[in-house]
Amino acid sequence: MKRRFCLIFLVCLLAVPCPVPAADAFNRDAPLEITSDRLEADDVSKTVVFIGHVVGRQDDLTIHAGRLTVHYRQGRQIRTIVAEEDVRIIQGERVATGQKAVFDRQEATIVLTGDPRVNQGKDFVAGERITVFLDEKRSLVEGGEKERVRALFHPRSKDNGQNPAR
């Protein structure tokens, strides 16, 4: 059960689009390794919680968080997965950070909050809230009272032929 929840979480976070080129294809058949200081499962509240220095690795994707909570329905169907406390999602050169990431399975969205930012190399996008619509392969970066949307894209180098802004 623990392996299935984390695999779905890792796969869904991989789909987070970034305004820069995606890394190579993710190998969903690769072995999955999850470590934490503690695991608590509660069938009454229908949650599984990984606590303390949570690290999930599969293929080239790594997720770090202080806490990861899986909320499920009857029949163990995942409803939401919440990563909290210094969340960092790494895939190749792409790094997404925030204090909280919420995956809603029904809505097929991931919402990053708490100073969310997505970097790839020198390029980045940031705001108060980043919402990723997984089925639509689009994202929304919102500003707010504390912070406006910020993005930085570097021009294409003639040497490497990459321009993340195009």
From TrEMBL:
<dbReference type="InterPro" id="IPR014340">
    <property type="entry name" value="LptA"/>
</dbReference>
<dbReference type="InterPro" id="IPR005653">
    <property type="entry name" value="OstA-like_N"/>
</dbReference>
<dbReference type="InterPro" id="IPR052037">
    <property type="entry name" value="LPS_export_LptA"/>
</dbReference>
<keyword id="KW-0732">Signal</keyword>
<dbReference type="GO" id="GO:0009279">
    <property type="term" value="C:cell outer membrane"/>
</dbReference>
<keyword id="KW-0813">Transport</keyword>
<dbReference type="Pfam" id="PF03968">
    <property type="entry name" value="LptD_N"/>
</dbReference>
<dbReference type="GO" id="GO:0001530">
    <property type="term" value="F:lipopolysaccharide binding"/>
</dbReference>
<dbReference type="GO" id="GO:0017089">
    <property type="term" value="F:glycolipid transfer activity"/>
</dbReference>
<feature type="domain" description="Organic solvent tolerance-like N-terminal">
    <location>
        <begin position="33"/>
        <end position="137"/>
    </location>
</feature>
<keyword id="KW-0574">Periplasm</keyword>
<protein>
    <submittedName>
        <fullName>Lipopolysaccharide export system protein LptA</fullName>
    </submittedName>
</protein>
<dbReference type="GO" id="GO:0030288">
    <property type="term" value="C:outer membrane-bounded periplasmic space"/>
</dbReference>
<dbReference type="GO" id="GO:0015920">
    <property type="term" value="P:lipopolysaccharide transport"/>
</dbReference>
<feature type="signal peptide">
    <location>
        <begin position="1"/>
        <end position="22"/>
    </location>
</feature>
